[in-house]
Amino acid sequence: xxxxxxxxxxxxxxxxxxxxxxxxxxxxxxxxxxxxxxxxxxxxxxxxxxxxxxxxxxxxxxxxxxxxxxxxxxxxxxxxxxxxxxxxxxxxxxxxxxxxxxxxxxxxxxxxxxxxxxxxxxxxxxxxxxxxxxxxxxxxxxxxxxxxxxxxxxxxxxxxxxxxxxxxxxxxxxxxxxxxxxxxxxxxxxxxxxxxxxxxxxxxxxxxxxxxxxxxxxxxxxxxxxxxxxxxxxxxxxxxxxxxxxxxxxxxxxxxxxxxxxxxxxxxxxxxxxxxxxxxxxxxxxxxxxxxxxxxxxxxxxxxxxxxxxxxxxxxxxxxxxxxxxxxxxxxxxxxxxxxxxxxxxxxxxxxxxxxxxxxxxxxxxxxxxxxxxxxxxx
Length: 379
What we know:
Blueprint: H1 10-21, E1 28-32, H2 39-51, H3 65-71, E2 78-81, H4 99-108, H5 114-120, H6 132-143, E3 152-157, H7 170-174, E4 180-186, H8 194-197, E5 201-204, H9 210-221, H10 225-235, H11 239-247, H12 250-265, H13 269-281, H14 286-308, H15 318-330, H16 333-351, H17 356-372
Helix pairs in contact: 2-3, 9-10, 10-11, 12-13, 12-17, 13-17, 14-15, 14-16, 16-17
C-alpha cells in the first residue's frame, strides 16, 4: 500500500517518512489507532516503503518488484501476525495457516476490524488470539536472513490479543536482529502488556476528520456530496463504519428504531418481547448491532444539536428529521444524555460478545425508565 492510499493522518506520514529517510526509525513501533482510523493501512504503507527499491519523494514507487510483492502481501521479508482460531478441535494454528484468507481480507477490507476478520474466517463467536506457538514462529522468522530487502519486517495486527504470550517477544523487541522492524497495530492500549509498551515507540493515531472521510467516500465510493456528508457525520471518524453505512440502507435502521421505541413506550409487554426476540433471531451480527446502536446515538445527538445549537448543519433524511423533532418533544436534555450513556455502554458490551437478547431486554427496560422517570438501581 502507498502512503497516498492511506486516508488522512498526514502528520504521522511525514514523521515516519522523515525517520525512515534519516535512518532514525525505531526498531519497534506501536500504532495505537481507533477502529477505522487506519492503523493497518499505515503499517502496510510503511512496510512497503522500507522494502521499496526506487523510493519517490514522500512515498514508495509502487512499480518496483518489491512494491508489487508488498502490495500483494507476498513479499518474503514482510511477515504478518494476526489473531486466529483453531479450524477444528485440537488444532494449534498460526497466522501462516490463514495466509490466503488474510490476503483476501486485507485487500477487500484494509480498514476492517477484528470481528470482521473472525467472521471472514468463519470463526463464529470464537475469540481469536496470538498464541505461544505463534510467538515462537515470530522469533524463528526474524532470526533468518532477509531474502530480498535490507529489512525484515514483522507486522503484528491487533497486538492486544498477544496477552501474556507477548512476554516471549520481549528480548526480540528490546534487541532485535539488525535491520529488523516490528510494527505493532492495536486499538486498546490497556490490554497490552506494560513490558511491551515500554519497549515500543507509541504512535497515537486520531480518528479521521469528517472532511477526510467525505473526500474518501466521494473518491473511492463515488458518493454524492450530500450523501458523503451524511454518512461521514454518522461514522464519527471511523472509515470502517462509514463503509458499513454505505452498504447498509440507514432507512432500515430508522424503521427498526421506531418499532423498538414504540414497543418500549407501549403498554403491551408482548410487543416489546416480540421485537427483542426478532432482534436476537435476526441475521444482524454483532458488528451490525453495534452500528445500529451507534445510529440511534447519533440521532439523539442530532436532537440535542437541533434543540440547543441553532443553525447547526445536519444532513438528515426526511424520516430522520421527523424522528429528531419527535424526540425533542418526548425527552429533555438530561433524558437524552442518559440514553446516550446507556447506548454507549451497550455498544461496549456488544464488542465483548454480550448475549443480544439479554442486552436489548435490559436496555429496553432502562430506556423506558428514562422516559417515564422511574428510578432503577444501577447495574
